[in-house]
Structure formats: structure tokens, C-alpha cells
Amino acid sequence: MASQVLIEHGESRLTRRVRHNRYKIALAIAALEGILVLAGAIPWWLVVFLALAALAAYVGWGREHESSDVRVITWTAAVSQLIVVLVPMLAGALVVLAALAVVALAAIALAALLLDRR
């Protein structure tokens, strides 16, 4: 059975495709921007400013807009920018977890060496 697609009145084919794939598009934009943030090409404060602007645009203008194109684009932009804000924090958490793993392995290696009776 084919999946059912909700078609809004006056929605173009491109808008349907973007709306159907908006999670993938938002994650792809966030991944690309996240790499640029971690590489230092984009400052983090600019990402926070863009996220606030995209969220304000969606809530204040795009959410209730009569055009489905505007609703889909502003939603996708807001979600992608909010994900990018989380990237440095997630990277920091991964660094902490990696450091804990190295310390645990070092403790296990030290214990193995100290318990060796040869």
C-alpha cells in the first residue's frame, strides 16, 4: 500500500517535497554548519544570533503565514539553526566522555601492571 501524502490547498510540488523531507534537510544544514562552527569558520555567537532570528521569524511571521512555502522554509530554518546551537555542547560532551574513557583505560592498564607478579 502506498503511503498517503497530505496535500495542502495551493501547495506546489517543490513545497510538498521540502515539507516531506524537512527533517533531512534541517539535519543536513545543521551538520554542514556544525562542522563549520567546530572548525572555527563561523563564530558561535553568530550561530546563536541566527538561531534566535530564525526562531523569531518562524514564530512571528512564518507560523501563521498564508503561504505554505513560507511556513515550510521558516520551520526548516528555525529547526536547523537550533540544532546547530547544540553542536558545540554535544562536542564538549563527547570530549569529556573520551577523556573519561582514556582515564578508565589507563587505570585498568595500571592495575594490570601493578598486579603482575613476575
What does this protein structure show overall?
- This protein is mainly α.
- The chain has a domain of 75 residues.
- It is built from four helices and no strands.
- The longest helix is centred in the C-terminal third of the chain and has 48 residues.
- The chain is elongated and about 80 Å long.
Structural category:
mainly alpha
Q: Helical amount among residues, as a percent range?
A: over 70%
**H/I helix tally:** 4
Envelope shape: elongated
Which sheet architecture does the biggest sheet show?
Answer: none
The overall pLDDT, averaged over residues, is 90
Strand proportion: under 5%
Q: What is the H/E string?
A: HHHH
The counted number of beta strands is: 0
Poorly predicted runs are none
Rg (CA only): 22 Å
Amino- and carboxy-terminal Cα gap: 69 Å
What key phrases describe this protein's structure?
single chain; 118 residues; mainly alpha; 4 helices; elongated
In short:
With 118 residues, the protein is mainly alpha-helical. The chain has helices spanning 13-20, 22-39, 44-62, 68-115.
Secondary structure topology:
Elements (H helix, E strand, L loop, with lengths): L12 H8 L1 H18 L4 H19 L5 H48 L3
Helix pairs in contact: 2-4, 3-4
